[in-house]
Amino acid sequence: MRILAIESSCDETAAAVVEDGRTVLSSCVASQIEMHTLYGGVVPEIASRKHVEAIVPLTERALADAGLRREDLDAVAVTYAPGLIGAVLVGVNFAKAAACALGVPLIPVHHVRGHIAANYITHPDLEPPFVCLCVSGGTSAIVDVKSYTDMEILGATRDDAAGECFDKVARVLGIGYPGGGPMDRLAQGGDPTRYELPRAHVADAPLDLSFSGLKTAALNLIHNAAQKGEELDLPSFAASFGQAVSDSLVPRAMEAAREKGYGRVAVAGGVAANSRIRADLTAACARSGDRLYLPELKLCGDNAAMIGCQGYYEYLAGHVARPDLNGYATRDISLG
Ligand code: KG4
User: Fold this and answer.
1) Which of 14, 36, 158, 295 is most exposed, with the fewest beta carbons within 10 Å of its own?
2) pLDDT over 90 (residue 246)
């Protein structure tokens, strides 16, 4: 089954063709980062307009790269939630029109389910059940992936997402947008114990996360140093920050894995590219005996291949959109 997949939930327009869930025939991504860098963050209206401009040529390129014609497609899958609503609606409406014109089913895909599915592309042997640490610019959650389409949140952030914190701190340091990658690179060679930063615990919810205190503490540290005219040791500051994020995420993911006992742990989302988190998860899984699944770096960020992969499993489970499908800014992953 060949699925054309569309992703437009934030600042990347993406189109891909995926066969039978696991074989990526093409994957095209048009990033808007350059445009949003001017403003230090995503400007929602600009994001929507850039998706409108990019989506048709990108889809044509995805088809050409796959060596297919429109008639060769069996279904269209699209990210319908969560995300910037104007951006999501561009993809949803385009996918609806494409499915209508081709006379094929339209499959709605939850964006974070797509991030999880990136692991199926990297690891052909991976099958549910497993525990997945989902960390991106908009989400931080530990998910029980019971089957390809039956998922439950075991713990989630009460405030900011991990990626959002990387981005805010990087913006104040003036090292680029989105900030996670530059912070990660800056941290190489830094001393992660040099600056003391908090690790939050949510009372009575040991698997829940909270990053707003860490973000505020990091921003205060930067501002206090500036006020006193002190120079921060930037690599050590970035390393200390990255370590604090990893210390908040990795032990909770491992505790969830212990409770579930599947013996398999995966990570998903843009922040899954973080070298500290990857190294700490690798060490933790070596200790616990769990098998660790890391998505390849190019599949950590937003792409449509992951949507085509998850779309296949949603289709097999009978999840096909009705003609009145809408887009949603927020939606629980367990609802599909
Ligand atoms: O998954 P993604 O591309 O978009 C969402 O679905 O949100 O994630 C983007 C996030 C941004 O916050 C970015 O700063 C972060 O992923 N990110 C990283 C790294 N690379 C990207 N965070 C930490 N370390 C990285 N190496």
Assistant:
1) 158
2) yes
